[in-house]
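Quality-control log, excerpt.
Job 1 of 2 completed; input and output follow.
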Amino acid sequence: MASKVFPNPCRIVSLDGGGIYGLYTALLLKKLCKQDKNFLTKDQVWMFAGTSSGGVNALLLAKYDNPREAVLSGELERFWEEDGVYINTNPWKQMTSMCGITSVFGTEDYLSVLEKYFGDLKLSDLKQRVLITTFNWAGSDAIPPKERHMKPKVFYNFPEEEADREEYVRDVGFSTGAPPAWRTIYRGMQDGGLYAPNPSVCAIAKAAECAHKVLETMKDEKDLPLCFHEAGLGHPPADFQHLQDDATEFAEILDDAMPNDILSNLNVLSLGCGQKKPFLPEKNADWGGLMWYTMPSNPMQNDWFPPMTSVALDGPEEIVSYQSAQLLNSKYFRLDPSVLTLPVMVALIWSVNPAMRAWVIDMIREGAKKKESRKAVTDALDWLKATSWTHP
């Protein structure tokens, strides 16, 4: 049956978190845009999903009717080269951060950069749908303190009745890109990378939720434009309009529109940050908490952070990619060549110093030129063509 209850194809761009390595993601997007004039054109992408630096990149893209303008103008790259993203101009907090008492980067410094790029924009002002992950340490104010608990918080700017639409983009951008110890807890929230460094499954789940909402509302209300609008899906496909007057086929569509049908319409392009993941060389180690939480994971790979820090950030990325690939099969593509050998946590530490930050930025730009990056981009372009993303 040709008609679907979901836009076909429904295209999603998912952007990983990775601190300053968000610059590498921006460079991959630029390569794709330069080599494919139809990539990221107006109305092509149904939703941009992002975590941490990927969340900021998603918000920058969503400012534009034509997201490729943000990429080709260099706006994403300029953001990750701003001093205010990495510095702390508060002398007292500089000292206390060195002692591990306060966060490394300055709150006002980062907010000033976010205000420069987003001003007073609210999520409702963005030109594209977004899904931005954060983690809510404080829980919901609507729940009594004794029953409250910390939990993930995902921001959306759709459908129109979504309360998150009144949030300022700068505030959401701060929260999604605020890893513990590196940035302050902001409005009770911090980095979504604590649970979703790769937000692909979050995006797939949101798309399924919207499609299911269409199905449910259509059971009671056969006003198709209204159903799609309320679910945040925009306008129904043209080949679906005739169901308004065909009750028999309408019922058949509802019966056939199960999750597999929904998933078959999704195309997800997932971009990582290019980091080569470290490993723990010990295969038999009787370690206690002191070792797990304080000992460097692998100094030979410049991974000076303890294993529990590394696994919390690096482990979930690959399992999410596996889950997404199993759900969508060939409709999911992962663009994440392992070319940046410096662990992202070390890169962040070095970025505090302007001279070292310049070296890290040069390393990222050189990484984007490596043959592994070029090969990965070529493979992505082939996938875009094969899935009719840019060549219908």
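Job 2 of 2 completed; input and output follow.
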Amino acid sequence: MTFASPFIYSVTPALAQLDESCKVTLNGQTLNVGFGGEFRINNLPTGPDLFRVYAICTKDGKTRYGRSGFFVQIALNRDSYISELDMVWQDTPFLSTAAIKIVSDSTLLTQIGSTTQIRVTALLSDSTQKDVTSRGFGTTYFTSNTNVVTVSEQGLATATGVGTVLITANNEGATAVTRLTVSPQASRPLWKALSYWQTAHRRSAPPWLFPAMAKSL
């Protein structure tokens, strides 16, 4: 995993949605907000993953809860600045993702170009579940080999080659993995699959196994 230089939230005080009464949490790190509404977080992973900021602000005996929209941390070897966070506020805590589960409608694809839907379910902080398959809910996908399987932002997996891959889903710091195999031979009748194996191995198979084919070799 690659980590970027610090993520920095900086905004003019007149526009600040955060102040020194707030604490923010981002990617598992919690820290105090400065007097100008700014904060700085180190070791935020780079890449396509989506992040959001959660805030708790207590002032004059009243607590309010904030949550930003999703954003991508892509800068490497330099500071990243966001001048405005699209914060939504309410009087009760926002639900957050505690863990995710990933399943595929099929774990075996038998043709190049065939597809299967990957589905991701989040276990939320109140123990309820939510479908977060789409990128719009903060889920991103990574395939261990795009020459075998690609995955869209909506979780649709497409076979592009032969082999086995691991598909990783990420959502607000939670991760889950599933395995997909692309094997066109799996769709052949048994006798065709055995014939393919015999041809591939030429004379290495004993003659009694495929007598008819053995005579033809």
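Post-run check on job 2. Residues 190-201 form the longest helix (12 residues).
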